[in-house]
Amino acid sequence: ANVLSERIGPKGIDWPSALAAHAQRLEAARDALWQRKSDPAEFLGWIDVPEDTETLRRVLRFREAQAWVEDLVVLGIGGSALGAQAVAAALGKGPVRLHFVDNVEPEPILELLRKLEPHKTLVNVISKSGSTAETMAAFLAFRRWLEDRLGPDWKRHVVVTTDPAKGVLRPYAQAEGLPAFEVPRAVGGRFSVTCPVGTLPLAFAEVDLENLLAGARKANEQARAALEHNLPAQTALLHHLFSQKGQNIVVFMPYSTRLRYLPDWFVQLHDESLGKMRDRAGQEVRTGTTAVRAIGTTDQHAQVQLFREGPHDKLINFVRLLNPSEDLEIPAVRGLEALDYLFGKSFFKLLDAEAKATAHALAKAGQPNYTLTLEQLDAYHLGWLLQHLMWQTAFLGELWNINAFDQPGVELGKEYTYALMGRRGWESLAQELRAEGVE
Ligand code: PA5
User: Fold this and answer.
1) Which residues pair with 371 in a beta bridge?
2) DSSP string for 38-100
3) Localized where (predicted)?
4) Are 375 and 322 in contact (CB under 8 A)?
5) Cα dihedral 376, 222, 396, 413 in deg (nearest 10)
6) Is 273 a pocket residue for ligand 1 (Cβ < 6 Å)?
């Protein structure tokens, strides 16, 4: 399968010499990542997850035993929802409807609760920390709703995915005898799509999980390879070099409506991993580039004007499919001969022409871009792409000497929320907020 980018090395960089100049650094990054992966404190467990076929078998057995499910509700946020949502939108099929509750806005939750039939609904609460306020609030609501309608049978309708030990969900699942899957200790939320965080909901969406993991293993092979075949090291270098040249915005733009949620997953992976105030030595560095979502062709009619004529502060990463899974011919219609350039051509040909034309038009305007190509949109190639992007993020973390696997910047907001919600132990922070006029 051709999963390699066909156009590495956009204009603006002398690619062979850039690669040669950074070879030592990239090889050191590669070796460091592979060496550190056995240390759980390094949060590199996502590298090995695609090898874990035993857990996948457990997930599939669990799914088979729940043939009664018609609606699966995923309660999770950030890394605990976006991966499954992206893959389900791209490849999901089958009779089970998936619903993602990743916000605490009351109206959509009420709308969903009014629509669901409790006897046919399974709730998968997913939280690595087992304590995220949004997910916990949603769980409290869905648990009460299930118990009110089903009595003690509610327990058959909940499955938990959480840390092996930490948080409130693990002991709760044990105490109530709920089925529970693990987010491995060394796997952080945004790197968790190939573990049960992603695979359990995706099993209900009938996604070919064996091949999803096989694709991820292919990306692992590339990430281990010598530099000339090491695609994530190369794309990380592109991001690094262009960020140094002032391209502080990264546009992630697949040409596919089926991949419409993939940019959301990428934005979270990229921004939360790489936007860091301090390097590993504690020095203030303020790293990061801002990832932006776009979908081709749709956003050609929204953002491409800015991409082409606005400031050259962007690196655009297109994702293009090389083959459709089905195609449709554009018919000839008498009286509309002005459109005869379309007659008899296929929709995929038009989509592909638009992708190539846009990339070329941007390159001509001096707007750097590169394209990752997928032979087709299936589980194998999507698994590859997800893992490739995780590797790219890890390589960038190494190049910038930061910890790509923590998120200290979101903690203070969480603390303030606890204080505003009256959580025990947060009284003095609540007082501080009141003094600052936040109530
Ligand atoms: O990537 C991350 O670590 C975060 O985005 C988390 O996934 C998100 O905050 C949800 O956390 P949790 O799974 O602990 O509820």
Assistant:
1) 318
2) T-GGG--GGGTGGG-HHHHHHHHHHHHTTTT-SEEEEE--GGGTHHHHHHHHHH--SSPEEEE
3) Cytoplasm
4) yes
5) 60
6) no
Ligand 1 within 6 A of CB of 79: yes
Going by C-beta distance under 8 Å and a sequence separation of 6 or more, which residues neighbour residue 105?
none
Per-residue pLDDT band at 11 (split at 50, 70, 90):
low
Give me 418's structure tokens. Answer: 């606890």
Instruction: Please state, in angstroms and as integers, the Cα–Cα distance from residue 309 to each residue in 64, 313, 352, 363, 414, following that order.
Output: 53, 11, 23, 12, 39
Residue where the block lists tokens 């907020």: 433
Distance between CA atoms of 280 and 219, rounded to whole angstroms? 26
pLDDT digits (tens, 9 = 90+) for 42-57: 999 999 999 999 999 9
Pick the atom of ligand 1 nearest to 126's CA: 13
In 275-410, where does DSSP find H-type helix? 304-309, 347-364, 379-399
Whole-number Cα distances in Å, 396 to 21, 79, 386, 408, 434: 16, 19, 16, 18, 40
Q: Is the ipTM of this complex over 0.85?
A: yes
What is the pTM assigned to this prediction?
0.96
Length of the chain: 439
Q: Can you tell me the distance from the alpha carbon of 253 to that of 370, in angstroms, rounded to the nearest whole number?
A: 10
Given its phi and psi angles, is residue 330 left (phi above 0), alpha (psi -120 to 50 degrees) or beta? Answer: beta
Contact indicator for 358, 304 with CB cutoff of 8 Å: yes
Count other Cβ atoms within 10 Å, centred on residue 326: 6
Are residues 215 and 223 in contact, defined by beta-carbon separation less than 8 angstroms? Answer: no
Q: Which of 128, 272, 314, 381 is catalytic?
A: 272
Query: Is 301 annotated as catalytic?
Result: yes
- Only one residue has tokens 């409506």, namely 257
Ligand 1 centroid – CA 55 distance (Å): 21
CA 304 and chain centroid, separation: 23
Residue 428, amino acid? S
Number of other residues whose CB lies within 10 A of the CB of residue 290: 15
Active-site residue flag, 415: no
